[in-house]
Every structure is written in structure tokens, then in C-alpha cells.
Amino acid sequence: MASRFKGYTGRLLEVDLGTGRVSDYHVSDEDRERFLGGRFLSTKILWDVLAPGVDPLSPENVLLVMTAPLTGTGAPCTSRFDISAKSPLTGAIGHSNSGGNFGVYLKRCGFDGLLVRGRSPKPVYLSVDESGVVIKDAAELWGMDTEKTQHALIERHGKGGTMAIGPAGENLVKYAAIVSQERLHGRTGMGAVMGSKNLKGMIAVGNKKIELDRPEEFKDLVKKWTKMLKAHPATGEAAPRYGTAGFLTALSIRNALPTKNFTAGSYKDAAMIGGERLADEFLVKNTGCLSCPIRCGRVVLVDGREVKGPEYEILCLLGSNMLINDMEAIFRWNYELDLLGMDSISAGSVIGFAAELNERGMWKNGIEFGKKENISEVLRSTAYREGIGADLAEGVRFLANKYGGEDFAPHVKGLELAAYEPRAAVGHGLGYATASRGACHLDGGYLIYFEATGPVTLDPFHYRSKPGWVVLDQNLLAAISAGGNCLFTSWTFVPPIAFKVPGSKLLSSLVTGILTHSWALIDVLLRFPKILKLHLPMLPHTRAIEYATGMKMDFGTYFRAGERGYTLERLYNQREGIGGEQDKLPKKFTHEALLPGNSRSVVPMDKMLPKYYRLRGWDRTGAPTKKTLRKLDLDGL
């Protein structure tokens, strides 16, 4: 059924791999308004179609590929699309987002998304064009890496958007990724869900134009927005120059760089694997996603060939976290992980935890801190579930249950910690503990930007201010994602003048004090977001959605959409038996001080979590109250 809103195509296709049947799946305009798109519209569909307790690797699980209202419109950084299912790694809501090209081409075919059911009796892939979806034989593709698979799809069907799994997905590695071009849907094991369905990949070839509600105003906004991103110090200077790798040395200075399986927060050789060295000595050129003016992607050489360079996460987790300072070796491992189709964050955390288990004599596995010679073989054995790889493929939580070490096992809800030391940024730690999909830096609200990496920072150990800031960031970043933008576009929320602050110690201290102690104002905003019935100049996202779709979209409405979606994810997790009892960090982070003599350098969950629940309108157990469900229009679920 067509939508009255522009920006959307108004169609979502349902594909049953078991029967071969393809049909339309109806999405109401009410749900489009409430959840926008991406992960939240997917969560609503999962809520509707999945029975509680479904085995994530069974045919009964469904895989959703979902675009958003801004996907493919030409607005800055809007090639994003989401893949969701029940996670085989956590058992909770699973979703992952990337800037590969499949989502844009899917929309150009005339579809907002795909809902994939069942399991094919043999390997297949999906071919999508403007007439619909055809299930194709993938016998010759099975066993290929992600790069060769995507090349083969293009050779068969011509230029289009592609996505594929590699050997890790085929072998049901619990943190297997899905790769679109060189961008990864890495977190929560969506590649394993595809593999469980014998679904090797997809290609979409289409040229339909996406209709906009107010095209001229939209076009003018895009020009101004692009100009703003290019002129901003974060998105126009730092990100293009250093990429996310530019965070590494700063985080080491602030004791927030995971080192030796999160034992320390600073690494003596941080400069050897940091973004500055990468840019000065190894960067071939910049790259980026479709419609992205930021161009933060790195291109480096591996064996004389230009390939995608590393992000911050892998430079840390297979660098400082393993006490390895060989940047070129990390380039190779990054490329190998992409070919195998495996999440670099989970893989790095798993290997770091395995190294500590080995060092303590709890599991003799041959993985050692500072030892790089066998890392490539460890990655390969994991993807193929050979030898120790059979255990590594299950993730940190599995290893802790089998070999011990739960107190220092870096995971939340079964999802491995991303590359930020929470004891040096307690708000970020609260975000890890409460994020819907587990220990995710982005779903958690990415408060590290205000505690360590940004131009102006909060007191990283001040716990009273953090619950409000975490809720604010979680809701806002979630809305940005559901609308179809890259989260890096949120960096313009910090005005350019703030980047001059670090040059003055006095001014920097003053701003830190003001931000830290503004928590009362943040709390008011969270309780009454309708106060901001306006568009904020530093966040053009709301006007873009309004001009594209015709929806009435101000900051208050936008923020409420983030809150609503986040609460729906909580309801989904609760239905799966995952509630407030799992909003916690390993004891290492809550009971062992990171900095000797600094008792504040632990994450005081007991002091922050109750207030976080109150601000969200959840009860003491972490369950949304009936009043909150009515407020968010979720009481009819």
C-alpha cells in the first residue's frame, strides 16, 4: 500500500526462502510517523511478527533490511540502511547500520525494505529490481569471501547495490557481519542470521526517482547543510584528515584507551598506531559513503593493493588492547576480517579476552599479548570454526561461561565492549550497560565524545550529571539513525567556537564546569521535550525529514521518536527475558579502580542507574511504566 508521505517508496517486500513466495508486507503511515525508519521500524515489525523465544538461527527468525525516509535522497550522509533480527549473539534485539550502497539502490527499485523469512534448502541470493525480487541459485558463490561475492553479483546483474556474507556467516560465527561494498553491518551477528537461512547475498538494480514533498526547499537545505559540514572543525577538518583513528592518541592521554584486555587505559606506543601516523605515513587517499561530504574513510596499501583502511576500533582492539604496535599488521587483519565477514569490534574483544585467559592459565590457547604472528590464523580458524576457533566464534560470554573470568569478560548482554575504557568516562559506561543491543558505543549514546574525545568535555568521573546526558544522547542519536543519517552528522551540534576552547586552560575548565553542572537543565528537557517545538540550526535533520516526507517534524517530535523507539527496544528485550538485571558491567569496571589512588575511576552503576530509570519513566526494575507507554503511544502494543 502506498504511503501518503513522500521520501518513502511506500512498499516493503516479504520473501519466504522456504516456499519461494514473494508478497507485499503492509506498513502503516502511523508506524512511519512513530518510528521513522531504520532500526525502529524494523523493531516494530519484529515485535509484530516474531513469537517470544524464537531461536535466532532457526527459520522462524526473520531478517529485515530497512531504509529510512532520508536514505538515497541526496541529503548529506544518507546512504545508511539497517539490518535487524533477533541476535544470535545476545538473544536480544539485533540491529546493525552501515553506509554501503545497497539501501540506496533498494529504494531506487521502489522498496523501503525487505522482510526475509524461512530457510532455503540450498544456498541462494536475492536479485532485486523495479519489478520485485527473484531468488537465485548461489551454489557457485558459497564459500567465496565478501569481496569476490559482490564482484560476482555485479558481473551477473550489472551495476547496483550489493551486500554479502563471507565464510564467517556461512559457518554461523555469532558475530558474523554483512558487508556492503566495504562497509560492514558488524554488530550483533546479522551475518550469522543470513547464513542460517542459506542466504549468501543480495543485489539491487534500479533507477526510480525518490519523490520529495518540498523538493526545492529540500535542495536548498542540502546545499546549506553540506556547506556547514565542510566548514565545521569536526566534520570538515578533523574527520577528513585523521578519520576515527584520530581519537586514539587523545584517548590514551585521557586514560580511556583499552589496553591489555581493558586492564589499563593508556598505551605507551599509542602514537605508533594512531591516526596522525596513519595520515602522515600510510594514507593513500580519503574515501567515503555515497552522498557523504565528510570523507572520513581511509585507503591504505596491503600487499601493494589499495584497500579500506582501519577505523579506530580495530586499531585499539587488535593494537593497544593486544599490546601490538604494528600498524601495517593491523591493516592486514582489518582487510582479512572484511573478507571473512566478521565484526572487528567483537573479534578484537574476543581475542583480547582469550589472551588474558591464556595468561592466567585458565585456557591454554596460544593467544598472547604482544604476539602477532598467529593473529591471521586465529581469525581464519574463527571464521571456519576450526580448533580454538570453534570456541572463539561463540563470543566472550560463551568463553567466560566455559573457562571462567566473568568478572573481567568485556561484554554486556553478550555483546562485546567497543573500544573505550568506561572507568575513564563513567557516563559512557552507563551507556554500555543500558544500550539495547549490549555494550555498544553508539546505541549507548557515545558520551565518550563529551567525556574524552570532543573539544569540550564533561568531568568524566562526575556521576550525578551523567544519567541525563546519557538519555539525551541515546534518544538523539537513535532518532538520527532512524531518520537515515550517519551519526557523525551529530557532531555539528557542538558549535565551531567550542574548538577554540582547548587552547585556553582557564576557558576549558570553565566550560567543563558549566557543562558538567547543567544536568538539571538536561533533566527538564528530558521530561518536557515539547518545549523545543522548533528546528535547531545545528541539527538540520528535522527540516530535512519535514521537507522530504511532509511530516511535521520539529526537534521535540524528533527527540520523542528516539525515546519511543528506544523504549520499544526495551519492551522487546523484556519479552525475551532480558531486563534490568542485565543492565550491568563486569566487576572489573565497577569495583577495580583504573587509576591507582583515584577512587572515582570506577563506574558507579549503583548511583547512576536508578536516576537513569527515573528519567526514562521506567520503574526500579527497568521496565517502562504504563504512564510512559501511554505518553509514547506504545500502550496499544
A few lines on this structure:
The protein is of the alpha+beta class.
Descriptive key words:
Aldehyde Ferredoxin Oxidoreductase,  A, domain 1; 17 strands; 4-stranded mixed beta sheet; Aldehyde Ferredoxin Oxidoreductase Protein, subunit A, domain 3; alpha+beta; 3 domains; globular; 6-stranded mixed beta sheet; Aldehyde Ferredoxin Oxidoreductase Protein, subunit A, domain 2; 637 residues; 26 helices
Layout of secondary structure:
Layout: E1 12-16, E2 22-25, H1 29-35, H2 38-49, E3 63-66, E4 81-86, E5 93-98, H3 102-108, E6 113-117, E7 124-129, E8 132-137, H4 146-157, E9 161-164, H5 167-170, E10 178-180, E11 183-185, H6 190-196, E12 199-204, H7 215-231, H8 233-242, H9 247-253, H10 275-282, E13 285-287, E14 297-302, E15 305-308, H11 312-317, H12 327-340, H13 344-359, H14 375-383, H15 389-392, H16 396-403, E16 411-412, E17 415-416, H17 426-434, H18 448-453, H19 466-483, H20 505-516, H21 519-527, H22 541-549, H23 555-575, H24 587-591, H25 605-616, H26 626-631
